[in-house]
Amino acid sequence: MGFVDAHTHLWFNEVVTPDMLERSSSVGHRIPIFYREQVLREMDDANLEYVVIVAYPMRKLWGAKEDFPIRTLRALRDVPDRFSVVGGVEVTSLTTEETLKWLGAQYEAGVSGFKLHPPHMWIKPNDYRPEERGVKQLEVLYQFAEDHSLPVMIHTGTSSFLPSRNKYGDPVFVDDVVVDFPRLKVILAHMGRPNWVGSAFQLVRIRKNLWGDVSSIPPKRLLNYLPRLEEVRDKMLYGSDVGDLGVKGLSSNLEEFLQVSVSEESKVLMASTNPRQIYHKIER
User: Fold this and answer.
1) Residues 6+ apart with CB under 8 A from 189
2) Which CATH number fits domain 3-278: 3.40.50.2300, 3.40.47.10, 1.10.10.10, 3.20.20.140?
3) Which of 8, 154, 206, 276 is most exposed, with minimal Cβ within 10 Å?
4) Distance, CA of 135 to CA of 124 (rounded, Å)
């Protein structure tokens, strides 16, 4: 049984549009273009059985909309055993009816979950609540995911891209979500790095339906951020965040993770066992 990378941004050349490339120059990070056969060779060399591609809408950054994950899935239909695709909806740009329509379309296409990126979408994860903004579309997202047994990945921590509003990156806002939707599996992407790692750790530790991923945290610094990592190893996922700034590559990041000074059992749990419980392959 091989490894699983539970968080990448492997956006392939046939999926990225010229408009997305043009817009990327204004956000401080040009979209990296990947080529599928090259990625597959690297996966084989690293014993990566499959990787999770996060393909969420991002109007404020690169202009991608709700069809982005569907186009990504179509581009991978002949290798469904090597990839998993996480989609999403930008709830502040859609009506309730449009939100439900796109969630259904992505589900039928084969997504393995949905992503919410609060700093990029300018929304708090608990903004569905009446004492917050009462965003019904956000409640629809969580309810649909819970009803269809799909996880929701929520970005926590800062983002350096120019349109980002980092006040929305605090993981404490996710606490309402896991309380209000107890059957929903929620993943704290990046574990609140670098500002809120302590809060993220405590929430994962005490909330049974809350998980975390360590993507974007350099493996060599992982235990500096999370010295008690092994206490929550049953609910932690390995991810590289390949495609983002500063990440070396699929194989090199995994190799560094496998050198971290935690037990071999913890490494297997994080980089193989746990992600299989969360994200299914395209073939299901």
Assistant:
1) 7, 115, 153, 154, 155, 156, 157, 213, 215, 239
2) 3.20.20.140
3) 206
4) 10
pLDDT at 26 over 80: no
The model's pTM: 0.97
Average pLDDT over residues 143-168: 94
Q: Name the one residue in this structure whose structure tokens are 């992407």.
A: 189
